[in-house]
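anyone seen this seq b4? input:
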Amino acid sequence: MSAPGTGSVVGDVWDQVTTASPVPSAGLVLAAAAVALVLVLVPGAWRRTRHLVTIAHEGAHGVAALLSGRRLAGIRLHSDTSGLTVSKGRSSGPGMVLTAGAGYVGPALVGLGAAYLLSRGYAVGVLWALLVLLALLLLQIRNFFGLWSVLLAGGGLFAVTWWAGDGVQLVVAYVVTWFLLLAAPRPVVELQQERRRGRARSSDADVLARLTRVPGVLWVGGFLLGIAGCLLLGGSLLVRLP
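predicted toks r here
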């Protein structure tokens, strides 16, 4: 039997999630993009916001592992913005390739999905979808810093969805979506810079090179092409105004 008021709360949340928001102005959409770009390009901001990209990166590894039939053993997030997703199964084959290849394109794919929802008017739906994904990710976290990072991100989203007004929710949804799309290329560029210095021999691109015999630099290029496609498509959805 439900506690008093529980059904009403769930119904209210569901109404918010499934009710389309008014179409935002072009100025708001572009301002959200500008804020997201600052969070990516300004070094002081990037040192902090890059943790959000790592969360999406490792989460994508985890989802790919599960979809390919591997067993997810845990995810770690580190204070230097690196991360590690451990899965069990065959050490080669399509499942391992899919798992290794999902990380760098993961943030852009999440951003593309969010952009689609925003194009349909579901700004609150975007926030709740991200919150659910963080809650599922939390179940797989295996270290304290990772726990803290996911709880902090989830707590911020929950505060916006629960207490903020419609206008604030709309702005946050657009900023987060733009951030995921615009931030995704930077870790790939940083990866190639590290590879040139010989410091990333265990990177996803190098793991894929060993699995497929395709040079790592081509995998890096593939990551960038996939991310660019998500950015172009997602951006076109976000700026599609009446």
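Residues 33 and 178 are 6 Å apart (CA to CA). The radius of gyration is 19 Å. kinda curious what u guys think
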